[in-house]
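Hi support team,

I've been running sequence recovery on a batch of backbones for a student project. Most finish fine, but this one hangs at about 90% for roughly twenty minutes before it completes. I'm not sure whether the input is malformed or the queue is just slow. I've pasted the structure tokens below so you can try to reproduce it. Let me know if you need the job ID as well.

Thanks,
M.K.
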């Protein structure tokens, strides 16, 4: 850099530091202060977690093995041979973790219940120590002013269940468990989600084989597993409503494939909305409409799922809210083909976070809310997960994760846009409160997703830069 350019730079920086607008020397007015991007009063701010990823204590107090215990103990399935024990030891440290939330000013925490802690064999015998544990967790949360949002099933089913999700009876077993627990906790828990990400625990676990139970089933069997997944939601919804106390709201948490109009023209928007509906046909679309789309059934042909009498009525029963796990999206434009749309290619150079799948598409935040609202008009929408893997820069005094701030700030901007336009977005749960067991990646340093760093040797929690940022977001109820 030349001396002249350095001198000019110093003038600009000096002027900025003194509050002088660059344009004033030519007579241009100073720019107005930006309008704060606020969320509505009463907007829910929280964090999210999952039992198998955070609790540890997999062989404590009568808990049975889960499918993920079996899978993670199988050589070669998880990076570095990691398992969900000890994870973050949240089973013993939940009060400490709730204090982290209180320190942030968060008003809510999304947790899941480990089904094998309640019914070690999947059904039948109740493990009272498991019930007592979650009662203590919920009570401590409420004492600290934190509202619990509870997910009944976040991928960890009891390994003792015969056939797993290939067995239709597993859907009934989940409903029995969910109804039982709703009767125990709904005097204090007023927001319950039946299932988490049916698309992932069915497809990635049974078609791709990267997740438990690690199967690569042929299409007909894989479609039947999908059906059992959405049926489990529907039956659990019925069971929870049959046993829950008055005032309990029930919904689900799903990660729909969100299609983004590459240009905001009416034609692109219509194409993206149609692609979103069809792209989620076996999952969220079926749950919101109570039917499988003709286009889906036609495409699957002889491989289409076998549907029992009354299944679709249960699957499509109205919910009190829809919760969306949102990380990325897909660009779409109109096309002269049988679908009426086409996807734009994701390139090797497309910007992404440390997870190879986490392509940065902040606009998906807005379109997730808008498409869901315009397609299905739910009573309320929550963002039940949104976050990113990023590299932590550790110094003697702090943990910096500026890339995570970049990701979160950009996504929140688009959630705020949806809220400002009047869509029924009621809350946001950041994924996640602290680093944890990251499924097939184990405890790899490169894919930590928490806003508190966890030393997995000592279990010490340390707030990152992103925790300070999120605290300010919550304080202002605005993007900062």
């Amino acid at each position: 850099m030349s001396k002249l350019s350095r001198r000019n730079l110093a003038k600009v920086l000096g002027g900025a530091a003194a509050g002088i607008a660059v344009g004033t020397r030519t007579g241009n007015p100073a720019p107005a202060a930006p309008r704060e991007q606020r969320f509505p009063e009463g907007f829910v701010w929280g964090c999210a977690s999952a039992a198998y990823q955070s609790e540890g204590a997999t062989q404590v107090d009568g808990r049975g093995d889960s499918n993920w215990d079996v899978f993670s103990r199988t050589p070669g399935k998880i990076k570095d041979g990691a398992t969900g024990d000890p994870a973050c030891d949240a089973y013993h440290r939940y009060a400490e973790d709730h204090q982290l939330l209180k320190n942030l000013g968060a008003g809510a925490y999304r947790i899941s219940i480990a089904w094998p802690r309640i019914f070690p064999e999947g059904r039948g015998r109740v493990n009272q120590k498991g019930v007592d544990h979650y009662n203590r967790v919920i009570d401590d949360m409420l004492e600290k002013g934190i509202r619990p949002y509870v997910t009944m099933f976040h991928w960890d089913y009891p390994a003792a269940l015969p056939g797993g999700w290939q067995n239709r009876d597993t859907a009934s077993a989940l409903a029995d468990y969910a109804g039982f627990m709703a009767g125990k906790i709904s005097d204090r828990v007023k927001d319950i989600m039946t299932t988490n990400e049916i698309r992932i625990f069915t497809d990635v676990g049974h078609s791709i084989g990267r997740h438990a139970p690690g199967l690569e089933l042929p299409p007909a069997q894989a479609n039947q597993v999908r059906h059992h997944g959405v049926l489990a939601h529907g039956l659990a919804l019925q069971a929870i409503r049959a046993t829950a106390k008055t005032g309990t709201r029930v919904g689900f948490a799903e990660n729909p494939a969100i299609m983004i109009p590459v240009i905001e023209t009416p034609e692109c928007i219509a194409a993206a909305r149609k692609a979103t509906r069809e792209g989620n046909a076996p999952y969220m679309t079926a749950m919101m409409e109570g039917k499988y789309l003709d286009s889906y059934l036609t495409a699957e042909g002889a491989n289409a799922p076998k549907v029992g009498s009354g299944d679709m009525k249960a699957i499509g029963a109205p919910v009190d809210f829809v919760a969306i796990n949102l990380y990325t999206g897909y660009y779409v434009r109109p096309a002269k083909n049988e679908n009426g749309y086409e996807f734009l290619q994701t390139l090797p150079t497309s910007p992404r976070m440390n997870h190879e799948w986490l392509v940065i598409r902040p606009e998906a935040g807005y379109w997730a809310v808008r498409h869901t609202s315009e397609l299905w008009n739910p009573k309320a929408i929550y963002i039940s997960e949104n976050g990113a893997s990023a590299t932590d820069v550790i110094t003697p005094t702090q943990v910096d994760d500026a890339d995570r701030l970049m990701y979160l700030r950009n996504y929140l901007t688009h959630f705020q846009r949806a809220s400002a336009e009047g869509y029924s977005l009621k809350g946001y749960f950041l994924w996640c409160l602290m680093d944890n067991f990251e499924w097939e990646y184990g405890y790899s340093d490169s894919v930590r997703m928490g806003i508190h760093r966890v030393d997995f040797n000592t279990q010490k929690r340390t707030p990152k830069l992103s925790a300070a940022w999120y605290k300010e977001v919550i304080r202002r109820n605005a993007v900062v």
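--
Follow-up from support: It reproduced on our side and the slowdown came from queue contention, not your input. The chain has one domain: 40-258+276-329+353-476. No action needed from you.
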